[in-house]
Amino acid sequence: MNKFKQLGLNDLLLKAIEDMGFETPSEVQEKAIPVLLANDTDMVALAQTGTGKTAAFGFPLIQKIDANDRTTQGLILSPTRELCLQITNELKNYSKYVKGLNIVAIYGGASITAQASDVKKGAQIVVATPGRMQDMINRGMVNISRIDYCILDEADEMLNMGFYEDITSILSHTPEEKNTWLFSATMPREVATIAKKFMSQPEEITVGAKNSGTDTVQHEYYLVNGRDRYQALKRLADANPDIFSVVFCRTKRDTQNVAEKLIEDGYNAAALHGDLSQNQRDMVMKAFRTRQIQMLVATDVAARGIDVDDITHVINYQLPDEVETYNHRSGRTGRAGKSGISMVILAKSEIRKIRAIEKIIKKQFEVKTIPSSMEICEIQLYHLASKIKNTEVNEEVNHYLPAINDVLRDIDREELIKKMVSVEFGRFFNYYKNAKDLNVNAGPESRNQNAAADIPDQGDVRYFINVGERDGYDWKSLKDFLRETVGLDRDDIFKVDVKESFSFFNTDAVHTEGILNIFTDFKMDGRFINIEISKNPGGSRKSKGWKKGGNTRFGSSDKGFGKKGKKGRRR
């Protein structure tokens, strides 16, 4: 039986759900939908960003709305224009088979008269940002005095953005007998105040512990000197060749400066902040969704409403002023059942903030070191080899092969491979051979249950394994596979870094012999799974054969690294 049908949804919604390919309801949907369908009740739902909240309130709202009545019956308030449009589009997809249902988005940066006209034509559901809705109420352009349902989506975000007065004013224009559904990732005091003031004995549902982070996100921090933040950011990006990330800064100025530096240094990056025009923001978000941009540098306010499921990393270039905001940042990754990584570039004086965040998200951070030159070089070389292997041959090259073969005829296969790789390796080595170590000694105050395992000097070993994202693994599933295969505890396997077609992980040295023995001639689904000891011992600061620190991307211009005019990161 269709699991969505078991929730009580009607055939029109089930048909749309089938078209969209939804198969299994998320936890928040399973908890919220039956209650909202069966009862006329207020509700407070606490769930992280990316857990399917829009469908959790959208399906019941659509089913309860009378499509034959052209008056406005449902109002949804959301913090940003982007989220407003996203909710509107999703509701339209959900209600595609409901004849006569009209859903209108109201937001700043577009014609207010055109939006008012759309509402007057008959909009049973209005999705709005608080500022624009308040403006239209003040001008008498919209009537919400007869609505039956009011939904506050991302309530904590709206209040963090200073919309408390707007929200209370808007709600004062709605009837007392309506149902109010409040959806939020966290429950700060201001949200509780709204619930107490405008809701009557609300049903409460919580997905996970209150204010906690999602289990699909791995949290880690890197200790550096404050002046080395930018260099640390570049090295973390270079250690993850397929990165698709949001980088968070505190201020608009820092956001713009970091983005400009990344672009100058050859990364596919862009800034997203409040000083951009709406057209500029739309262009940036379009480029990010299509992966033309791999590193989106954003302020917290500008990033609200970003809904992209495949973000691999959230990088906290600076921690937010309010520790609760970290939960929203990290919630941008690890969405739709996928795993993600939230990194913090941290000054030693900020360790106390990590402890405060751990209490809120109810998870511990893993202490990690900024990758060494050798480690990043190894990753980039494997990535280059994988890229060459998986590149589809352009048959036009056949026209040039005779001449190319003539040039290369005196070079054997092994020597040719060495020379090909050395073209990129040489640039990399020459630029980073004098780069310094960016890591700062954590000291005793950096308490962490994984700390002993994460410090390279404690005798850990780093391994290479020939499986990665192409084989369906992420850090979480690979860790589980290794743990089950080798028979170790979860905390015995750490520093799991999954790349496109290969991965790395660490264990204490005592486990090395057993791991190598188990993976001797080890086959899975007819394929040999190989594990070798990595040439770089866990990113240790004592790595030999390379100078300290450093990393970059392959495929840079001949003008040297860190110079203007360099080409973008190539994949």
Description:
- It contains 21 helices and 20 strands.
- It is elongated, with a radius of gyration of 26 Å.
What is this structure's SSE topology?
Blueprint: H1 11-20, H2 27-38, E1 43-46, H3 53-64, E2 74-77, H4 81-94, E3 103-106, H5 112-120, E4 125-128, H6 130-138, E5 149-152, H7 155-160, H8 164-172, E6 179-184, H9 189-198, E7 203-206, E8 217-223, H10 229-238, E9 245-248, H11 252-264, E10 269-272, H12 278-289, E11 295-298, H13 300-303, E12 313-316, H14 325-330, E13 340-346, H15 351-361, E14 366-368, H16 373-390, H17 401-408, H18 413-432, H19 451-454, E15 460-465, H20 475-486, E16 494-498, E17 503-508, H21 512-518, E18 523-524, E19 527-528, E20 531-533
Parallel strand pairs: 1-6, 1-7, 2-4, 2-5, 3-4, 5-6, 8-13, 8-14, 9-11, 9-12, 10-11, 12-13
Antiparallel strand pairs: 15-17, 15-20, 16-17, 18-19
CATH third-level topology of the domain at 5-206:
Rossmann fold
Q: Provide the spatial order of strands within the biggest beta sheet.
A: 3-4-2-5-6-1-7
Calculate the mean pLDDT score and round it: 83
Count of extended strands: 20
Q: Sheet bearing the most strands, described?
A: 7 strands, parallel
From the spread of the alpha carbons, the general shape counts as elongated
CATH architecture of the domain at 5-206: 3-Layer(aba) Sandwich
CATH superfamily of the domain at 5-206, called what?
P-loop containing nucleotide triphosphate hydrolases
Helix content: 25-40%
CATH class of the domain at 5-206: Alpha Beta
State the separation between the terminal residues, measured CA to CA. 43 Å
Could you say which structural class the secondary elements and strand pairing correspond to? Answer: alpha/beta
